[in-house]
Every structure is written in C-alpha cells, then in structure tokens.
Amino acid sequence: xxxxxxxxxxxxxxxxxxxxxxxxxxxxxxxxxxxxxxxxxxxxxxxxxxxxxxxxxxxxxxxxxxxxxxxxxxxxxxxxxxxxxxxxxxxxxxxxxxxxxxxxxxxxxxxxxxxxxxxxxxxxxxxxxxxxxxxxxxxxxxxxxxxxxxxxxxxxxxxxxxxxxxxxxxxxxxxxxxxxxxxxxxxxxxxxxxxxxxxxxxxxxxxxxx
Length: 210
Fold this sequence. Notes:
The chain contains 7 helices and 7 strands, in the order H-E-E-E-E-H-E-E-H-H-H-E-H-H. With about 210 residues, it is of the alpha+beta class. It has one domain: Pnp Oxidase, Chain A (Roll), CATH 2.30.110.10. The protein has a 7-stranded antiparallel β-sheet with strand order 2-1-5-6-7-4-3. A hairpin with a 5-residue loop joins strand 1 (about 25-30) and strand 2 (about 35-40). Helix 6 packs across helix 7 (about 190-200). The longest helix has 15 residues, at about 115-130.
C-alpha cells in the first residue's frame, strides 16, 4: 500500500495490536482467471519467535482454498478504526477534508489444514479468541456432529513473509491535533478509537494550543 514516511509505522507492537483488536480480515488471492478473489474471514494470530502465523478457515464450497493450494502466495489486510476528518480542525481555512485510518497489510505464504484434528484445534483457538464459554458447548455437541461440521470447512495457515503498518492520523499536521482530539474524543466508536491512538502515539504532547 502507499506509505508516506509520516504514516509508516515501524513499531511491530502497533501492527500486532491492530491485528488482534480487528481480526476480521480480508484474504486476497488470484483466482483461476488472474483476478483478485477476496474472502472476509476472522483470523487467529500466532507468534512463534520472530515468525507470525495467521490461522483461519473457509467453507469447503468456497473456492478460495483451491486458489491457495494452487497459488500459495496471498495478501491479508486488516482495517482498524477509521473516520472522516473535517477541515474545521485547522486554524486556517485553506484546507480540505480527509479520512484517517489504521491498516495492516501482510504478504503471506499459505498451507492448507485438512486433517479433522488439526481443524478442531484451529476452531478452538478461534473460539478462545471470541467466545471462550462456547468451548464447553462445542465439546458437548458430540463427535458425530463435530466431524460433520469439520468436514464442511478447509483450514489454512498463513505464514507472514512481509508486513506493512500504516497509521494515518494527521501526524504531519500538529496544528490540528488538539481540535482532532476534541472532535474524535466525543464522537462515535471509530472516532474515539482514533483519539485513543493519538494518545498512544504521543501526538497530543506536541499539539499547540489554538
């Protein structure tokens, strides 16, 4: 993705936080005609030393797993909080609106997970991420039902080979930061999340008073 220097984050922790806080990702591969094919899937992030692994699955009728098998290199994108920014935040009028957002893009190498036991472990990791209490219900459904459900999905492991993190929150315009904090801090969920990221990045300490 386009990465101006003032929006490019080299802090690994920022990327990991975005990936964990916003796990519903876009998995992008080339289909058999060469066009991009996109599946929207929740992914579990595993850290193994310096290696990042993303675990997920798709329905067996979804052809995406076949594309991953034929062409294992793919791209995964995570979109964090995002919001419109009014030019009213600037002390002068010669400004235009923009859109602020946080995003992570990963180039990945895919391998399929097709064994029932491995798929079951994958599902349990996703359950632990989103509803740990459901684990007991899943176990109580019985092996026959579980095997039927597992047969209907194909799992995949995505090994991250390149990672880009973009934090676009008007860092290069410090004269706007105090007004941005006030505007976003009293806004919707996305706007409040961006205000929290402004604090995380230490943007407010440098913001001049208007």
